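quick one before i forget lol
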Amino acid sequence: MEIAVAILNWNGKSWLEKFLSNVVENSPMATVYVIDNASTDESISFLKQEFPQVPIIQLDKNYGFAEGYNQGLAQIQADYFVLLNSDVQVTPHWITPIIEKMESNPNLAVCMPKLKSFHNPEYFEYAGAAGGFIDTFGYPFCHGRLFNSIEKDEKQYEEDCEIFWASGAALFVKANIYKELGGLDKDFFAHMEEIDFCWRVKNAGYSLQYIHNAEVFHVGGGSLPKENPFKTFLNFRNNLFMLHKNLPDDCYKRIIFKRRLLDAVSWLNFVAHFDFKNAKEILHAHKEYRKAIPDLEQKRTAIPNKTFHAEIYPKSIVWAYFVKHAQRIDF
């Protein structure tokens, strides 16, 4: 059995300096690879000098997160791919419980460990916490994180469970299923591509799980800081892409219409706070979504069995959080 831990890098020498030795030391059962998105810093020379045992896959340009992984993983032969962010600190035996669970269940395609904050290790981390879900309008949330409210880890998520999406910060996937489903959608570039992929995994009839006794610590914001307007553009555009592709036929137009109204409210909120850069990016996102509809329709047709899965919260987390002041969603 071959396990490949693949770290995607773009001008991330500082993260490799900080975390790569930790990953290599704690992953003796796996081969650790670095997929480099045509970095212009000293990443490659650093890797060759300090980690000659780590294979480097050098790409010819910056393909972003989605296609960068697709291009790199196509050059790796393994039974399991582990997509790992460069700003993640792993723990001893972080791989074993997940692989054992996946080996024992042929239908289990994707898993993630418990994701906690590197800077505040008693708390979960925003990007995945204890497993991801979405609501009926495509807003992502997690066990342990609802919008910007992040829970302290008080052992409240100490059972493995079915989830809707696994964080791309530390995502385990059976290689044959990754290839079968075409990998990540390159048109997303970055952000939400793992949720779209996991939705396609669900639609294909496979299972996804959070594994409680595997744990890693994530810095977060290593590629794009939260306040970066380009991140706003990607999140709003890609959410519409994801909904258009994957929602069931009987509801996708209605839900996308309502989601676009909610995006208008977000735009008004940015304007009210004089944040015109982010407001502009919401308009940009909707313009790019409209241009992409013909391609999205083709992708939608190619996805069979589009389903409103049990792990999709059937109400609005916007209403639950901002109006009802909910701090967590149980369903």
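fyi The two ends are 37 Å apart (CA to CA).
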